[in-house]
Amino acid sequence: MATRGKGNHFHIKNRSVERKLIRNRLLLAMAGVIFLLGILISRFYFLQVIEHDNFVTLSDRNRIQVRPVAPTRGLIYDRNGVLLADNRPTYRLSIIIERVDNIDTLFDDLRGLIAISQSDIDRFTKARRRGRAPYQAIPLKRDLTADEIAKISVNEYRLEGVEIEAELVRYYPYGELLAHTLGYVGRINERELKSFDEDTQKAYSGTYSIGKIGIEKYYEQELLGEVGSQFIETNAHGRALRVLSREDPAPGKDLHLHLDIELQRAAHDALAGWRGATVIIDVKTGGVLAMASTPSFDPNLFVTGISYKDYNALNRSKDLPLYNRTIQAQYPPGSTLKPILGLGGLETGVIDESTRIQDPGYYRLSEGDRLYRDWKKWGHGNQVDLHQAIRESCDTFFYELAVRLGIDLMHPIGSQFGLGSKTQIDVPNERKGLWPSRDWKRQRRKLPWYPGDSLNVSIGQGDVLATPLQLAVMTATFANRGIRHEPHLVSRMGDEVISKKPMSVMQASSVNWDYVNEAMAAVVHSPKGTAKKVAKDITYRMAGKTGTAQVIGIAQDEEYDRDKVAERNRDHALFVAFAPAEAPEVAIAVVIENGEHGSSAAAPVARALFDKWFALEAARAANESGNQPAQTDTSQHDTQPSADLTMEATL
Amino acid sequence: MSLHGGKDFVRHMPDSAQAFKKGRGVWKIIHIDPWLLLGLLILTTIGLTVLYSAGGGSGAIFKRQVAFFIIAYGAMFCFAQVPMGLLERGGKWLYVLGIVLLLMVLLMGVGAKGAQRWLSLGFIRFQPSEVLKLAMPLVVAAYLGRHVLPPKLKHIAVTLGIVAVPALLILKQPDLGTAILVSASGLIALFLSGLQWRYIGGSVLAVTAAAIPMWYFVMHEYQKVRVRTLLDPEADRLGAGWNIIQSKTAIGSGGLEGKGWTEGTQSQLDFLPESHTDFIIAVLAEEFGLKGVLILLVCYGLIIFRGLSIAWSANTHFGRLLAGSLTLTFFVYVFVNIGMVSGILPVVGVPLPLVSLGGTSLVTLMAGFGLLMAVATEPKKN
């Protein structure tokens, strides 16, 4: 202080004092530098040693992303190993939002190169709003053509954030042949996504498609497989650089069907031009050999997203191509019920083989009551027994039987053949038909059961409804002597063979089975049988029953006049059958909407398909035994029936 | 004012220094301080090594930096040759030139990233604020060295004026980092000249006293937000906070040994922003670990020690103040940058000297070391 005072006063610089002052300050500064360097070092020690582990975690989280790896969907094969549902490699254009500066500009740029529809953008916008991992690509357009891929690739440098990703997309080589049965997969929609719980969400994290209908939906869980994951190192811009580790996805299980694609094709062809359905079942196992509903549609349209235009065309068509008639359409079964009711009559003892009735062409419950008409105006004669009643489809006989049985005995007979309950087939959205009972009527209609109701039920009219599949099951159960199998399409899932226990077994004496069986054979093979036309040149014995279902009511004093009835109000034609009659293997139900007569419209379908099936069987047997494939379409059935035929004629 | 032109009263026999230190004769003649040069060369090597990695292995950035270093070493050599007398007299003209250029920047400057810092000379763009990094210590050291020490209030006031004018002009660009460095060089010289502690204490109190009412009554909310972000960058996770979080992650994950040269995931995968400029220490910390950081800091420490010892043994007050200011400003660079990247100081744009990629700033820095060498090798007058 003294020094400074002196310097100030005399304005003389004391250089050595001043130098000392500066040097002191330099020492102080050096001390400060050392202190501050110490602070930096302790800071780095804190970050790099004490907090090291935390920052390693942060650093790894930065660069490592877990990405789901979609499993390969299980394939579907027919009974002979023919591929029915394949996975086709395709390319999709996806966008990583985080890398895009301005999404609208990008859309404009893309539109300059390839066609991007508003619905693509809408879907993209929706997907964008969903929760997702950062830097996860969102698909914009799927199934790019080679030309589109080329255009995008060439311009990739100015399309930041755009990626072309490979994916496997479902492909159905047989198109409309199997649309209803296999169903199809489609994009997971908003509603499905909302219904997902956490685990499901994880399972679908790499998958964009889900089974919507048919087998694809029913076996979704098995077909899907298990999602895998990849640890991917990415840079700050989300670009994947390398795969650090990978947990492979487990592919979905392959499904093997009972269905035979050749038989299916024949079924589809046989129904061509009609609105109708047919189901063919392996009597011994319940395996579905073919299942066709026409008109159909191309399921491939739905896989990558159907256009509004295509969808509206399908959805608004009066022919209802999207409707799976085999399990969703419910028809009055008509006379196809008669054999099982006849069997029930014999079993309960209300009738026997010698019971004969007089048929004037109508039935009257009591004097002065309304007339219940037979389809044959003048009746079937005065000596109608059950055999003739089935063979010629005599309504009056069954009116009499209905009165004798009453609904309380009739109802359990139908139930044991599966009427009124779901068949439990492995295709979703099955309807259960309607098999009325006294209780049902009281509960639903709030009305008592009238005797006339039983008469209607006995000819498969009134309230009775059944799906074509139910009719096939009923027929197969009959053919199988009361053992009712659950019908199913899938025979093998991966390595797991699926076999079902019978759902119910109806006990009846073999005499009665034989009797009704023979009556059904007579429908086809007797000169008076309602379906005798289909027996032409037949090489095996076939047992069947025709049916006709009214679409509009006809007043009791009126007659059905085909010329007055509009095409869509004409009767539905039905036919159920099994073959060979003496040792049944396959059973069929055919419904042709507005086909009018079971015998003329529906029965030929059954004949064609049985022929096809036995031909296929013969060819297969020939192949397996190492013989030349059968050149004539012979089978083990073609030599037997001639003797029986003549015997049949006498019955 | 002084008859002796500010030189100390120290007498030497002619060439007596050389007589004692024979080997250093050559260095004296070419005006190079070998110890400082050695430190700088080591630092340059470390810097280029890290920069090569930060550049993602592409040679382009590396080659540019090598070119800048060649120019910068040239500048150092040139500035080391300037006689002290000329430096003492010419400083003020350099300062005036710098102010004029700064005004020109404000009027006709070229912008980049929302700031106007550059002046285009047709063939080259340069930052006039760099001129002040040299002019400021020169002019303040010359001014204070001429007067009585410790400085009187009048001299303090003038010095503060000398500091304030360019500082405000640079702040207006705005370039907070450079403003801090330029002001620091002037204020450090003032501190070294023996500024009384009561003034230092008084101004700290005054600034605090002014800041509190400013914060509560004068500043707008948006301004407060900006200050808060500056003081606590991690609150702004997507802006400045992102940088700090990523740099801390890079440093911390490097650990003791580091992930290896060019193996740092944070820097190589672009998570670390500004990895070859302001945040380059994070690359070094990630790839070479705490050991690498220590080597770098020791290297800086030795250079600073050498700079301060040059100041210690300088012939004149001007030389002492100049050398001290240049050296300590260099340390301010180091401390502000490393403190900012490691998250203990606010984020202001200050590069890591001699390591960060830099054009003009590298040249200015090395020119500053040239001045330091000029001080170190000034012949002692009788």
Structure overview:
- The complex is a heterodimer of chains A (about 650) and B (about 375).
- Chain A is of the alpha+beta class and about 650 residues long.
- Chain A has 25 helices and 23 strands.
- Chain A has three domains: about 50 residues; about 190 residues, Penicillin-binding protein 2a (Domain 2) (Alpha-Beta Complex), CATH 3.90.1310; about 350 residues, DD-peptidase/beta-lactamase superfamily (Beta-lactamase, 3-Layer(aba) Sandwich).
- The N terminus and C terminus of chain A are likely disordered.
- Chain B has one domain.
- A three-stranded antiparallel β-sheet of chain B has the order 1-2-3, covered by helices on one side.
- The N terminus of chain B is likely disordered.
CATH architecture of the largest domain in chain A: 3-Layer(aba) Sandwich
Q: Level of helix content of chain A?
A: 25-40%
List low-pLDDT spans of chain B: 1-7
Whole-number total of structural domains of chain B: 1
Radius of gyration of chain A from CA coordinates: 38 Å
Strand content of chain A: 15-25%
Oligomer class: heterodimer
Distance between the termini of chain A: 146 Å
Which class of secondary structure composition applies to the elements of chain A?
alpha+beta
Mean pLDDT of chain A, to the nearest integer, reads 87
Q: What is the residue-averaged pLDDT of chain B?
A: 85
The most extensive interface between chains reads: A-B, 45 and 51 residues
Name the overall outline of chain B.
Answer: globular
Give me the secondary-structure topology.
The complex is a heterodimer of chains A (651) and B (382).
Chain A: H1 2-10, H2 15-50, H3 52-63, E1 64-69, E2 76-77, E3 83-95, H4 103-111, H5 118-129, E4 138-141, H6 146-154, E5 162-171, H7 179-182, E6 184-187, H8 190-195, H9 198-203, E7 209-213, H10 214-218, H11 220-224, E8 228-234, E9 240-247, E10 255-257, H12 261-270, E11 276-282, E12 288-294, H13 300-303, H14 308-316, H15 325-328, H16 338-348, E13 357-359, E14 362-364, E15 371-373, E16 381-384, H17 386-391, H18 395-405, H19 407-416, H20 438-445, H21 451-458, H22 468-479, E17 483-484, E18 490-493, E19 496-497, E20 504-505, H23 510-525, E21 543-549, E22 572-579, E23 586-592, H24 598-624, H25 641-650
Parallel strand pairs in A: 2-10
Antiparallel strand pairs in A: 1-8, 2-3, 3-4, 3-5, 6-7, 8-9, 10-18, 11-12, 11-23, 13-16, 14-15, 17-20, 18-19, 21-22, 22-23
Chain B: H1 16-20, H2 25-30, H3 34-54, H4 59-81, H5 84-108, E1 110-112, E2 115-120, E3 125-126, H6 129-146, H7 153-171, H8 176-192, H9 197-218, H10 221-231, H11 240-254, H12 265-268, H13 280-312, H14 317-341, H15 360-376
Antiparallel strand pairs in B: 1-2, 2-3
Helix pairs in contact in B: 3-4, 3-13, 4-15, 5-6, 5-7, 6-7, 6-8, 6-14, 6-15, 7-8, 8-14, 11-13, 13-14, 14-15
